[in-house]
Design goal:
- The structure holds three protein chains of three kinds.
- Chain A is mainly alpha-helical.
- Chain A has eleven helices and four strands.
- In chain A, strand 2 and strand 3 form a beta hairpin.
- The C terminus of chain A is likely disordered.
- In chain B, strand 11, helix 20 and strand 12 form a beta-alpha-beta unit.
- Chain B is elongated.
- Chain C has two domains: 184 residues, Rossmann fold (3-Layer(aba) Sandwich); 150 residues, 3-Layer(aba) Sandwich (Rossmann fold), CATH 3.40.50.2300.
- Chain C has twelve helices and 15 strands.
- By secondary structure, chain C is an alpha/beta fold.
- The chains are: A mainly alpha, B alpha/beta, C alpha/beta.
- Chains A and B meet through helix 4, helix 9 and helix 11 of A and helix 5, helix 10 and helix 12 of B.
Chain lengths: 299, 613, 390
């Protein structure tokens, strides 16, 4: 029983990072129907931005909490702006081009970000300083660390914040309107270009936050770390019904759990195959994902 | 003139291919073994690109896991030669069958999915195949399989670098020929229509499910040949050769070159494989430069480096002038005699959530009639059409088409393409042509379900025979274009036609399937008075040629002047049926149009309904 | 002419790009005073680029030392590098490029995945290939006369690790974990077999998916099997995370790694948790008495400690030079013959004698341990007994 709970906790921790990253995929897809392959790499850039701040701050004598906050904020801001730049350069000129063109452009952007990071930080691994407390506690036979709990709470707070922003503010409403019908939104006086940029900004900010948190928690980063998590986050976004924000959050956690229980009851080597099998089965039964709305095609 | 130009450009293309082939054949004379080995890699990826091009370029289906087919082909062949001792050539048919099965497996779950979801499902399939190869013992796990014998010809095994290059070249040429034949076959036209508009393709008679699956299978087969070649070339296969990144590389070959374009795919393979090698001079920055070049290429040239040529009209021959229809008498086969029941709609209902869009509608259309369905917006007219033509499944009721080989055909719960085959064709309210295809090709797709009737004989000899679109079909296409007055527009893209021309082209596409009856959904919407008059003439001509017409229309002038009978719908229900005169005086009809119990001044009725006595 | 322009453009471009791709690929072995080229195929891009860079440095230092002594046969040694990106297809091309550039011999390689097609290519051109880091047994068992290596094999390391785990750590229950790469699986299989022969119970033997950040599910599963020791044969990146996360979970087994965990990144990643982590490894340059000068000059040139394999690459290049000297010729086939006859060559990593497969007849493995944030020699196998290192 306690082992089962341990797997549950492990899975939720993994899932929290996935959810944060999946949100960016789903938001951007919702608004311009683009699978943003560069999103995982934005996550990676966030980790390196935070790393740069931490290394610079290591020399100064500043309280740890302050440094961590600074790294987080810096990582989020930098990736937010980077997301905007990527949209401007690689996607905006292609919004009305054939769908595959923008997909390839996204692949190009992904590779460009990876290569830039490799050229700047090298091909090897970089290590975050060990700032988070390693101490933990046990509840009902389950081992938890304070850092783990902190990360999870932080991820949930960010997601709730995003949800409230999208559903309770004018700008958020404009985003949702745009996702439903770009032309109608434009006719209603919504500045479409600005809202698209805002979406990229927000999605990238969340990915950046996840990147810094990953660095802080796992301490090991490199220039291709965005690939696998990007793949799984993208899977989560589709599983939850792409374009659906709460769906991505829930599906991220589900995939985290699936990874954990796959290691427990099947074998870790089959993890990804299982994740994809579950995804394909879900899509066969429910073609728009777990929480996606049914799309009625007009004839 | 267009014919001459067409021939010149054909000759040009043929000469171009000949020059390219000559250069490729001569390459080993001037190139060192390193360049040749890169050239062989380029050929491998050209093969893979050609296979994927069938899926992505022709049929418009996204596939991010194409390396899976490459892997299945490579592993099947390697295992058979290592475990069963088969030679390279003996393993090929097995590899092809195995990948074709793989194509079905990936194709099946994707049939119901929207195109965006295809991305992740195909990606997942690719990963699953790779993970299976990594984890199973029989595939050698992460080690892969070693010591795969080299392919032999006449007892001599091909191990030299130029030998492997020529083998790769031969395979690539074969893949090119297959692609070329497919692109001009009925299947090729069906794929293109699928790419342009899946719903419309199904509704004009293309069996989209089967055609989609065939796209995956045909695409997979090419990968199934490239795989064994790859394995035999290196004497080894291991799972790292079939990662997601390889799938992406193959996709890049297709997109960068130009989707659907054969020279484009070759150029794409050259750029994607050889360019990074050539950029080794700038060692560290080469991938970054490559990535930025990729973005720039998409931004400034999203159609690719060498896009597919603008499609020409399929029929070659003199344009047919707009002709009266003395000669044309379609669908005489087994059609009920004039005045007998042709189409019976009985108790058809369809709800969407709580709304009864169509509620217990029954009526009959007789051979040789023009029947109009009118009613206010939202009355359920289009939903009724969709129920009859199989686009929407009715919740209850029966739709029966009389006549034909079987005497009668039950249509409800049949897929739209079978409804067309049974003899009922349609047009759409918001014109759904295949915009990227020529006018003639639009009509040609409409003829899909009658392709066997036209036979396989062509005026173009052997190549024509391979291609399968017969001379008779081209003649039919010309005839229908002429019939709707588009005899000289066959080469124009559908999207370049004027609004009225597009309406008429859609009718020609429907008629090309030789239906007993056509269902026209608001053909006069948006037309000007002159066009409307032409349309009225056309509808009568269609009827005179023996094809019954069911019409949804708001334009009362048109309805009242052409219809033999009028059916009125309101809120899903049929509220009146009769001759134009009978309907005109019906109180329920007037109420429906005016919204209930309001006083009904004759002038208002005239104004609203546009009826003049 | 005009009608042909586009297609001729394609044909012309094909030729141009291919020629450009191969530029510098002139043939000819070089005569007289021309330098003798030794090809070094290593990953210079992708995940393992840093390891490839380290190996390349070892090769360059060897060439530098040889040339300072006057070269071989009066000619200088020149290093020709090629990026194999750790991939099969790129590897085959890299090897082909080296062959075309007229190398006399090859010395290098990192991933077994790439080394195999490289070896195939060199074998076809009859060029000897001395591998410095690829430990997969298969490489020297295909009957290719051209295959040699200065590093031990996985099936030599596995039993040594197993012996340490059972005889020194006194473990009765052992878990074996790999990452499903060719190398790691080979080592894991060899170790698992040897562990059972030594009398230990293998309670877990499976793979993880590399490239993730969180391995707590796998570790929880392993904890549940209650092993005394976990032998992880994958790479250092995963090892660092495993060590740290095992600590977080409060796992009470001793972790031992294979030689691919031999990288300072592991210590940085795992932090304080790395203390006491042990690994079976071919000795690092730092531990080798004969290699102290090498470590100094490496540090001077690159401002860093040498990585795990550069010293084996140094020996690979040196042994090739020795073979050229003995053969009295830079003809690849004669070098191959001379290499096969190498006996008792004093390299930095010890005495090198090639057996009939081209493997080192007595490879050296030690157990190292992380102490005070550094790898240090810990135990050594002397006459069948585990004794303290040094």
């Amino acid at each position: 029983m306690s082992q089962f709970l341990q797997y549950l906790v492990n899975g939720l921790t993994i899932g929290a990072f996935l959810s944060l990253t999946a949100l960016g995929y789903t938001m951007i897809y919702g608004i311009i129907r683009l699978i943003n392959f560069a999103h995982g790499d934005i996550f990676m850039v966030g980790a390196f931005a935070g790393y740069t701040v931490l290394v610079a701050a290591a020399a100064a004598h500043v309280p740890v909490a302050l440094i961590v906050m600074a790294a987080l904020v810096a990582g989020m801001l930098f990736t937010g702006l980077l997301g905007v730049v990527v949209e401007r350069v690689a996607y905006q000129p292609l919004l009305s081009a054939p769908r595959l063109a923008i997909l390839i452009s996204a692949l190009g952007a992904s590779l460009a970000l990876e290569e830039s990071a490799r050229l700047i930080f090298g091909a090897g691994f970089s290590s975050y300083p060990h700032l988070l407390p390693t101490a933990g506690f046990g509840v009902a036979g389950v081992r938890l660390t304070y850092a783990q709990v902190g990360m999870f709470v932080m991820a949930v707070l960010l997601m709730v914040g995003l949800y409230l922003f999208v559903h309770r503010t004018m700008l958020g409403t404009a985003m949702r309107a745009l996702a439903m019908d770009r032309d109608a939104a434009r006719l209603m006086g919504i500045n479409v270009e600005r809202i698209i940029l805002l979406t990229f900004f927000l999605g990238s900010v969340l990915a950046g936050a996840a990147g810094v948190m990953q660095g802080l928690y796992y301490t090991q980063i490199n220039f291709i770390m965005g690939f696998l998590i990007g793949l799984r986050a993208f899977t989560a976004a589709v599983l939850g019904g792409i374009g659906n924000i709460p769906g991505a959050m829930v599906a991220g956690l589900l995939i985290g759990l699936l990874q954990s229980f796959a290691a427990a009851y099947v074998s870790a080597r089959w993890t990804d195959a299982l994740v994809f099998c579950v995804l394909i089965l879900v899509l066969v039964v429910k073609p728009t994902g777990l929480f996606g709305e049914r799309i009625v095609e007009r004839v | 003139m267009p014919r001459v130009l067409g021939l010149v450009s054909e000759r040009r293309a043929a000469a171009g291919w000949a020059v390219t082939l000559a250069v490729a054949l001569a390459a080993p004379l001037v190139m060192g073994s390193y360049q040749l080995s890169i050239a062989t890699s380029v050929l491998t990826f050209a093969m893979l690109g050609l296979g994927l091009n069938i899926v992505v370029g022709y049929a418009g289906l996204l596939d991010l896991g194409y390396a899976a087919f490459f892997a299945i082909g490579a592993y099947t062949s390697s295992l058979l030669s290592l475990e069963a001792g088969l030679g390279f050539w003996q393993t090929l048919p097995f590899a092809v069958v195995a990948t074709a099965i793989g194509g079905c497996i990936i194709g099946y779950p994707t049939l119901r999915l929207r195109s965006d979801y295809l991305a992740i499902v195909t990606l997942g399939f690719g990963e699953i195949v790779r993970i299976i190869a990594t984890n199973l013992t029989i595939t050698g796990g992460p080690n892969g399989l070693y010591g795969i014998p080299a392919p032999g010809i006449a007892g001599v095994s091909i191990t030299s670098i130029p030998g492997l290059y020529y083998l790769g070249l031969a395979f690539t040429v074969a893949a090119l020929l297959l692609s070329w034949v497919l692109s001009r076959s009925w299947l090729g036209y069906a794929w293109r229509s699928l790419r342009e508009d899946e719903t419309a393709a199904e509704a004009v008679g293309v069996p989209t499910v089967r055609v989609k699956l065939l796209a995956y299978v045909m695409g997979a087969i090419v990968g199934g040949v490239a795989g064994p070649f790859f394995a035999a070339r290196f004497g080894a296969v291991d799972p790292t050769s079939f990662t997601f990144l390889v799938s992406v590389q193959i996709l890049l070959v297709v997109i960068v070159g130009g989707m659907g374009s054969l020279p484009g795919v070759l150029l794409g393979a050259l750029v994607i494989i050889a360019l990074p090698e050539a950029l080794r001079a700038v060692a560290d920055f080469r991938l970054l430069i490559f990535a930025l070049a990729l973005i720039a290429l998409m931004v400034f040239r999203p159609q690719g480096l060498w896009p597919a040529p603008r499609p020409r009209g399929a029929p070659r021959g003199r344009p047919v002038p707009a002709a009266p229809l003395e000669a044309a008498a379609p669908a005489t086969r087994g059609q009920p005699a004039a005045g007998e029941d042709l189409l019976t709609v009985a108790g058809v209902s369809r709800r969407f959530g709580g709304v009864r869009a169509v509620d217990d509608v029954s009526f009959t259309v007789r051979t040789g009639e023009i029947v109009s369905i009118i009613g206010p917006n939202g009355a359920g007219k289009t939903t009724l059409f969709n129920c009859i033509t199989g686009v929407t499944k009715p919740d209850a009721g029966r739709v029966v088409l009389h006549g034909g080989r079987h005497g009668r055909r039950v249509l409800h719960r049949r897929a739209p393409h079978r409804v067309v085959a049974a003899g009922l064709a349609r047009t759409f309210q918001g014109i759904r042509l295949f915009d990227g295809l020529s006018a003639a090709d639009n009509v040609l797709v409409g003829r899909y379900c009658r392709r066997r009737r036209d036979g396989w004989r062509t005026s173009r000899g052997l190549t024509g025979g391979l291609v399968g679109v017969s001379g008779a079909t081209h003649a039919e296409v010309r005839r229908w274009l002429g019939f709707v007055g588009l005899g000289d527009r066959g080469d124009s893209l559908a999207r370049e036609l004027s609004y009225g021309e597009r309406r008429r082209l859609e009718i020609a596409r429907a008629l090309a399937s030789e239906p007993f009856a056509v269902l026209l959904d608001e053909p006069a919407a948006g037309t000007n008075p002159t066009e409307k008059n032409e349309l009225m003439g056309l509808i009568r001509q269609v009827r005179d040629s023996g094809v019954s017409v069911v019409l949804i229309e708001h334009d009362m002038d048109l309805v009242m002047s052409v219809s033999d009978r009028v059916i009125v719908m309101d809120q899903g229900q049929m509220i009146a049926e009769g001759t134009p005169e009978q309907v005109r005086g019906n109180q329920r009809v007037i109420d429906a149009y005016l919204g209930g119990e309001e006083e009904t001044a004759a002038e208002t009725v005239e104004e609203v309904l546009g009826w003049r006595s | 002419m005009a009608p042909l322009s586009r297609s001729s453009a394609l044909a012309g471009l094909t030729a141009a790009v291919l020629l450009a791709a191969g530029c510098g690929g002139g043939t000819g072995g070089g005569e007289g005073g021309e330098p003798i080229k030794i090809g070094v195929p290593v990953p210079l891009s992708g995940d393992y680029a840093s390891a490839g860079e380290d190996i390349l440095r070892g090769a360059r230092l060897a060439a530098q030392d040889i040339n300072q002594r006057g070269g071989v046969l009066g000619r200088k040694i020149q290093i020709a590098q090629a990026d194999d990106a750790c991939g099969a297809q790129v590897g085959a091309q890299a090897a082909q490029r080296l062959v075309s550039s007229g190398i006399a011999a090859a010395a290098g390689g990192y991933c077994s995945t790439a080394a195999l097609p490289e070896l195939n290519t060199f074998h076809r051109s009859k060029i000897p290939f001395v591998m410095d880091a690829s430990t997969n047994p298969q490489l020297t068992e295909m009957g290719f006369a051209e295959a040699f290596r200065t590093i031990g094999r996985d099936d030599q390391q596995g039993p040594i690790a197993a012996s340490f785990i059972v005889n020194d750590l006194k473990a009765g229950r052992a878990a074996v974990l790999h990452d499903n790469t060719t190398y790691a699986k080979g080592l894991a299989d060899a170790a698992a077999k040897a562990l059972q022969q030594e009398g230990a119970q293998v309670v877990y033997n499976d793979a993880l998916t590399p490239g993730q950040a969180d391995y707590t599910p796998v570790l929880t599963k392993i904890s549940g099997a209650k092993p005394d020791v976990l032998y992880f044969t994958g790479y250092f990146a995963e090892a660092g995370l495993l060590i740290k996360q095992a600590k977080q979970l409060g796992a009470d087994f001793q972790m031992v790694g294979g030689d691919a965990t031999n990288d300072p990144t592991l210590i940085k990643t795992a932090g304080p948790a790395a203390e006491g982590f042990m690994l079976s490894t071919a000795p690092l340059a730092q531990f080798l008495p004969a290699a102290q000068d090498y470590v100094k000059s490496y540090q001077q040139a690159h401002g860093a400690q040498p990585g795990p394999y550069s010293v084996y690459e140094y020996d690979a290049v040196s042994v090739v030079a020795e073979a050229i000297e003995k053969a009295g010729s830079a003809e690849p086939e004669k070098i191959t013959q001379a290499l096969a006859g190498i006996k008792g060559f004093q390299g930095l990593t010890g005495t090198i004698t090639f057996d009939e497969n081209g493997d080192r007849s007595d490879p050296v493995y030690i157990i190292a341990r992380v102490e005070d944030g550094k790898f240090a020699g810990y135990k050594d196998l002397k006459d069948g007994q585990w004794v303290d290192f040094g």
